[in-house]
Amino acid sequence: MMTLRRFRTLADSYGADLQRWPERQRGQALALLESSAEARSVIARARELDEAIAAASAARDAHVWAGETAGRALRRLQSRVSARTGGRSGAAGAARVEQLRAARRGSPRRAGWFGLATAAGLAVLAGLALGILYSPSSPPQDLTALLQPAPLQLLTE
Amino acid sequence: MDRDGETNGPDAHADDLCDAELLARSARGDRRAFDRIVARYGPVALRLAARIVPDRQSAEDIAQEAMVRIWHRAGDFDARRARFTTWLYRIVANLCIDLCRRPRPVPLPEHFDTADPAAGAEEAMEQDERRAALATAMADLTAGQRAALTLVYDEGLSGAEAAEALGVTTKAVERLLARARAHLRGRLLADRDGAEAAT
Lengths: 157, 199
Fold this sequence. Notes:
A: mainly alpha; B: 9 helices; elongated
């Protein structure tokens, strides 16, 4: 048996229309409604509020859609959605693009470029290290000389 | 497939296809199938968004974004797990709630308080004030309260279905509804309740 308190709680959430109430509770709610004048009073008050809410929703719709028709709004929506999605070959196309990207991320070609770049970087570092190790003991005095590559003593001796 | 899920063959017209089949075709890049989804559910997205966000432009932006997301994620939809409408409601409601987290002033349209020439000037003014008060009362609810109210009261979802769409529990939906109603009772029926209390 549903208590009046539970009945009031459900009415406070779902209003007077029992079709909105949780299906499992409707039978008990109907039984209470038949037997309790207080339950009927709760529903009468809830119905007043339902009507006020319906009027408020209609007023809000009138506010939001003032000067506009549903048909025009739908046509605008269709046009804009089409413009944003029409340039692509479709969701399947998007999936294919993503697959290609994923494949490219892990492809041997990408790995090859990465290897070449690493090797080039290491070669530059090695050259710099050799230049420092085998540079002349007395540093060049002028700026022009400073900008010239240092001769490798290993090769000039 | 038709609306009951029976197969009609590959040449069946998009108008006759069920939501799940239209989504499956959209996922394969079928523009015609997706156009049918937009035609069928665009009004629902617009109506729901307009009940939650503060103005028409935002509602149209939300509906547009929801449809674009559906196009891109059509392949993710699983008809065995949820109805398409539940998925649509979830996308639209979440976009609306995210938008409403960024507060901004909501101007009334210029012609909102235009007097009805058929009615007397004073009566028309009262009508307009009443309408403005009603609209403001709804606007003062939180986005979550408006979403719950719209899904259950206007779209006819059960508490459990609204909970699924909003990603919350049924109890949470009932609390949102109860708070919304308490607020609206205070705003819309305060005069009547006060008069009743006085007698």
